[in-house]
Amino acid sequence: MDDYESQMEKLDAVYEDTDAAARQGRMPDGRHQAQIVQGYVDQGKYGWQLTLQFANKEGTVMKWIDLENEDRLEYTKMDLLTMGFQGKLSSLKAWVEAGSLEDLVCDVSVKTKDGTNPGTQYTNVYINKVLGKGEPMPTGPASRLAPGSDDDIPF
Q1: Residue 124: enclosing H or E segment and its boundaries?
Q2: Are 67 and 48 in contact (CB under 8 A)?
Q3: pTM > 0.85: yes or no
């Protein structure tokens, strides 16, 4: 028996008697206080984007902010200013990578709408304001999507 097996045998009985934690689903529609548990800038389907994952006890929700869509730059700028970004768009990635968004607690509105294809829906997330910094949320790596992941993209 190797070290792993002998060490884990000590926990076998406790593990067997432990109830599994409930999975968190998508945050329901409505207004929420939620914390940014992950934020990164990467190449998306339509160019550079800022991806944010918000979480609270009710669930998680993703927000993608297109950085190259000139028709939406006013909304991009509104969201970035709300989150405290004051620099040039070219310096956003460095600002995010420096941890500026980590653990921000925000007042967000979540709205699910029907898509253009029958039976499809999409979720909009609106950042109303930042309420401050919070303690890191007890979420593990499994709750975070890897950059470039499309697990939550509705198309």
Answers
A1: strand 121-133
A2: yes
A3: no
Which residue type does 115 have?
A: G
Domain 25-137 maps to which CATH number in 2.60.40, 3.90.120, 2.40.50, 1.10.3470? 2.40.50
Q: Which two tokens stand for residue 6?
A: 């002998």
What residue has token string 């006013």? 74
With beta carbons less than 8 A apart as the criterion, state whether 74 and 65 touch.
no
Residue 151's nearest CA partner among 38, 1, 21 is: 38
Helical spans, DSSP H, in 10-125: 12-17, 73-82, 92-97
The first and second tokens of residue 135, run together, are 């303690």
pLDDT tens digits, one per residue of 85-106: 999 999 999 999 999 999 999 9
- For residue range 53-76, list pLDDT tens digits in order: 999 988 999 999 999 999 999 999
